[in-house]
Specification:
The protein has no helices and 37 strands. By secondary structure, it is mainly beta. It has 2 domains: 127 residues, Thrombin, subunit H; 285 residues, TolB, C-terminal domain (Neuraminidase). The protein has a 4-stranded antiparallel sheet, with no helix packed on it. A 4-stranded antiparallel sheet has the order 9-10-11-12, with no helix packed on it. It has a 4-stranded antiparallel sheet with strand order 13-14-15-16, with no helix packed on it. Strand 34 and strand 35 form a beta hairpin.
C-alpha cells in the first residue's frame, strides 16, 4: 500500500498540512478591497475575464476583479442556498458560466450559480449511479459538457454526466492500458478533446485517451529534456497546445512541449521579474494568454507574463502583530474563525486572528498550568471547543483549555492502558505534498 505523507514546514509562518498550503495567515489585504483571503486555492477564469477561486479557510467561492484586485464572495454559508461548502478541492467553469467544484468533505460534485451562489449537488453517493467518489480532486469540462474528475484514492479518472450525475470509470488500473496512476491530482482538456493529467507521485504529466482510457507519459524524468519535475501540482493548456505546469518544489511555472515532453521554465526566481513564486499550487489562463497563479507567500494572486515570466501581484496580503511563529507544525480552525497553531519552535499553541493576522499565545510554559508543551506536533478540536495536542517529546496526548491554556494529560505511558506512545507523529494523507520524514 502506498504511503502518502505530508509533514513539511515551508517557511516560518508557512505550514503544509493535509495537502494544503496554509500561510499563517492572510493578514489583511493591501491590494484590492473585500474579504481577505485565508487559504486561497483553485483558480479559474470566467468568460468576462473575472477570476474565481475557492478559499478553504473562508469555505467560499470568491470572485476577483483582474484589474483592481477587489474580492467579492460568490458563495459561502451566508451567500446562496444549498449544500454547505466544505473542503473544496477542484474547480472549473461550465459553458453556461456555472461553476463546478469537487468537495472532499461531501465526496461530491456541486454546481454553483455564478450570480446567486446557490449550490446543487450534481453527483455523490446519493445522486447519480456508478463508482462512489473517495477523494475527488481536479475537475475539467469536456467540449460536450461532460465532466471529468480525478480521484486520488480511486487512482482513476471518472466521467460524470452533468445532468444525471451518473459516474463511469474512464481510466484506472483496469480500464485502459499504460502507466497506472499513482496520485492523479489535476486534469485538463486539450483542444482536440484529449485529457492531460498531473500525477504528483509519478512526478509526471500523462496523456489519456478519452475514448479508451489508455495512458501515456508525456513528460517526466526520463521523457523529455529540461528541469525535472519535483512536485507538479496544477496544469493548464495554452492556445498553442503547450502545457503550463506549476511545480511546488521548483517554485516555478514550466512549459511542456506536448510532443517531445521537453520542459522549459516560464517563470521562477531567475526567470522574470517581480516577487518570487513560493510553492505555486494553482494556475489558470486568461483570455490574452497571461497566467494567473496563486502564490502562497504572501497569499497573493499573481499575474505571470507567459513570454517574459514577469510577475505582477493582482491581490495580496500584509502582516499582523504579536509573537512571531517559529516552527508552525499544525493548524485547526475554531468555530469563531480563528486559527490555532501548534508551534514546536515556540513550544506553544498560538491563536491567530484571520482578519488582522494578530497572534496571541493560547498555551505555553508561562500561559496555563499543567505539563509544559515540549514539541507540540499536532492539534485537533473537540466538539466542546477544547484542544487536543500530540506532543512527541512528552510522548503524550494533552487536552488544552482554549481559554485558560491549562494542560491535562489525556494519555501517556502512565495514563491509560494499551501500548506506550513512543515518538508520536502525525502523518496526513496528502493531496499534493511529499516528505521524507517518518
Amino acid at each position: 500500500m502506498r504511503t502518502r505523507f505530508i509533514i513539511s514546514i515551508v517557511l516560518p509562518g508557512i505550514l503544509v498540512l493535509g495537502g494544503l498550503l496554509l500561510t499563517m495567515p492572510v493578514y489583511g489585504q493591501s491590494i484590492g478591497s473585500g474579504p481577505p483571503f485565508l487559504i486561497p486555492e483553485h483558480i479559474a477564469v470566467e468568460a468576462d475575464g473575472n477570476l474565481v477561486l475557492v478559499d478553504l479557510g473562508l469555505k467560499a467561492v470568491v470572485r476577483v476583479d483582474p484589474i483592481t484586485g477587489d474580492r467579492t464572495i460568490v458563495a459561502d454559508a451566508t451567500t446562496g442556498n444549498g449544500a454547505a461548502l466544505g473542503d473544496l478541492q477542484g474547480m472549473a467553469v461550465e459553458a453556461s458560466g456555472a461553476f463546478v467544484v469537487t468537495d472532499d468533505n461531501l465526496d461530491a460534485i456541486l454546481r454553483i450559480d455564478p450570480t446567486t451562489g446557490d449550490r446543487t449537488v450534481i453527483s455523490s453517493a446519493t445522486t447519480g449511479s456508478g463508482p462512489i467518489f473517495l477523494a475527488p480532486r481536479g475537475i475539467a469540462v469536456e467540449a460536450s459538457g461532460v465532466l471529468v474528475v480525478v480521484d486520488i484514492l480511486l487512482d482513476a479518472i471518472l466521467r460524470i454526466n452533468p445532468i444525471t450525475g451518473d459516474r463511469t470509470i474512464l481510466s484506472d488500473a483496469t480500464t485502459g492500458s499504460g502507466t497506472d496512476f499513482s496520485f492523479p491530482i489535476e486534469i485538463a482538456v486539450e483542444g482536440n478533446g484529449d485529457l492531460v493529467v498531473v500525477d504528483i507521485l509519478l512526478d509526471a504529466i500523462l496523456w489519456v485517451d478519452p475514448a479508451t482510457g489508455d495512458r501515456t507519459v508525456i513528460s517526466n524524468a526520463t521523457t523529455g529534456n529540461g528541469p525535472i519535475f519535483q512536485t507538479p501540482r496544477c496544469i493548464a493548456v495554452e492556445a498553442s497546445g503547450a502545457f503550463v505546469v506549476a511545480d511546488l518544489v521548483l517554485d516555478a511555472i514550466l512549459r511542456v512541449d506536448p510532443i517531445t515532453g521537453n520542459r522549459t521554465v516560464v517563470s521562477d526566481a531567475t526567470t522574470g521579474s517581480g516577487d518570487d513564486l513560493l510553492n505555486p499550487a494553482h494556475l489558470a489562463l486568461e483570455a490574452d494568454g497571461n497566467l494567473v497563479v496563486i502564490n502562497p507567500v504572501p497569499d497573493a494572486i499573481v499575474r505571470v507574463d507567459p513570454i517574459t515570466g514577469d510577475r505582477t501581484i493582482i491581490s495580496d496580503a500584509s502582516i499582523g502583530t504579536g509573537i512571531d511563529l517559529l516552527s508552525p507544525r499544525d493548524i485547526i480552525l475554531e468555530p469563531d474563525g480563528n486559527f490555532v497553531v501548534a508551534d514546536y519552535g515556540l513550544d506553544a499553541l498560538v491563536r491567530v486572528d484571520p482578519g488582522t493576522g494578530n497572534r496571541t499565545i493560547v498555551s505555553d510554559v508561562t500561559t496555563g498550568s499543567g505539563p509544559g508543551l515540549n514539541n507540540p506536533w499536532g492539534v485537533v478540536l473537540e466538539a466542546d471547543g477544547d484542544l487536543v495536542v500530540i506532543d512527541i517529546s512528552l510522548d503524550a496526548i494533552l487536552r488544552v483549555d482554549p481559554i485558560t491554556g491549562d494542560r491535562t494529560i489525556v494519555a501517556d505511558d502512565t495514563t491509560g492502558t494499551g501500548p506506550c506512545l513512543v515518538q508520536l507523529r502525525r502523518a496526513y494523507c496528502s493531496m499534493g505534498f511529499k516528505s521524507s520524514q517518518p
